[in-house]
Structures are given as structure tokens and as C-alpha cells.
Amino acid sequence: MAIHAHPDDESSKGAATMARYVDEGVDVLVVTCTGGERGSILNPALQGRADIEANMSEIRRDEMARAREILGVRQHWLGFVDSGLPEGDPLPPLPEGCFALVPLEEAVERLVREVRSFRPHVVTTYDENGGYPHPDHIRTHEISIAAYEAAADPERFPDAGEPWQPLKLYYDVGFSIERINTVHEALLSRGLESPYKEWKQRDEKWGDRRRPVLTTRVPVGDWFDRRDAALKAHATQVDPRGGFFKVPLEIQREVWPTEDFELARSEVESTIPEDDLFAGIRGLDVVEQAS
Hints:
Blueprint: E1 2-4, H1 9-12, H2 15-23, E2 29-34, H3 50-53, H4 56-71, E3 74-80, H5 104-118, E4 122-125, H6 135-150, E5 168-173, H7 177-189, H8 196-205, E6 216-219, H9 224-233, H10 249-255, E7 258-266
Parallel strand pairs: 1-2, 2-3, 4-5
Antiparallel strand pairs: 5-7, 6-7
């Protein structure tokens, strides 16, 4: 189970890993917390179109349908409303009724229902920084941790399904400073332009945050093209000529052919570093206890 804040997050964080596991026969479910209704149109070719701005919710649902088909995953909507990304100094208040302002227990209960229904072995989500400091990403972290801990407790949310204990919880580490620096230097050494100067400046702007620990690097270079195709399916949310797509796949596969995660919780013995989210689970007789 991969828990994400908005449609498109599943395609920019861990998408190649999901595609690999789908091809291996793993049942993968993406849980999308909000509809992305307040997302900006980031594709220059689509900006300024009133028909898109007036139908953002429906358009983003259609984009999500195309992305999940490309990745081969299942996907459920948790049903909350996008909080938007507040900007300015001071920051404006969040919109009334948005995901980040919904009472925590209400959001946790909905996610616990998903966990108990799907019964995952492995859960992926964001760290306490949200991957980046968007209020919906931070709230996604909060409810993911709470639901992981509550799902197995029969006294918590007794009407939300039979208790279930996932076995491992990971944080997505989409663009670690290690990866950015490695790919940046590889591009410069080949005389190519790097899109990562701006990324490094943006990372510094976000301040003194805990750096993720790369415990688990899953080899998925052969699935990078699927990842990119899924991300481009979210046409309003990405510039197909932007930084996500400026690094040639052959260089990515050569210098950083993995997607990376931080192991945050484990109910099984795990030896770090790992190259598989199911390390410590494969071979165990856990089908009836985690799925």
C-alpha cells in the first residue's frame, strides 16, 4: 500500500518500484488522500485554459486513471479536499474543510478502513517533513503513522474492519541530496546541463530538516520509462520539458538505478541496507496475517 497526498504523487515517488512489484505479481494499492482540486497547472502548454481551471477535480481524476493503468496498480480515493500550498509571508490561513484541517481521528479512521480491507504487508508514505513541506504531505505522514499503529488494535476503530498488522512501513526518499549530487556531477562530467542547481537551492530554502536515511535501495532502472509515462499522464501537473525529464534515462540507469526508501517501522527482522521492500517477509508464512 502506497499512501499519497495528491494524484501525481504516486508517479513521482516510488512509481518504478510499484511497477516492478506489479510485474512480479504483487498486488499494489495506491491510496490517494485528496483529489488535488487546488493544484496549480504546472504544464506551460495548458496554463490559462479556463476549461481546465473550471474542471480541475474531474481532470485530475482522469489523469489518475491513466497513470494507474500505466503502472498496473489499484487505487482508492480517501475522499478529502486538497489544502493547497499556502504562499506568502506571513502564510495565509488554510481553506476551511481542507485535508490538513480535518480532525486527525476522522482521517485516521478512513485510512484504517483501507488498511484493514486491503491487508498490506508493506506500507509506504512520507516522513515527518512530508517529502517537502506541503500541509497535505505532512498530514499524510501523520495519518499514515497513526493508522499503521491503530490498524492492529481491536480497541481502535472497532467498526472499521477486522484488525490487521502491516509488517513494514517505509518513507519514500524520492530526491535525496545524495542522489541529486551524484546525478548532478554525472551530468556535468559529460558536459551536459544539470537541472539540479535549482533543486539544491530549493532544498536549502526549506531549512534545517532531518535528512532521510537511505536504508533501502530498490533496483528499478528497467521501470524508469513506466515511471515517466505515468508522471506525464498527469498532464496538468508536470512540464514534459521540465527538470523531472531532463536527465537521460541511460545516465540515471548508470549512476543511480534505484528508488530509495527509509525503513521507519518493522515487525520482522531486517538487515540494513536492503534492496527489497519485502526483505524479511519473503518466505515467511504470513499470507493469513499480512497481504
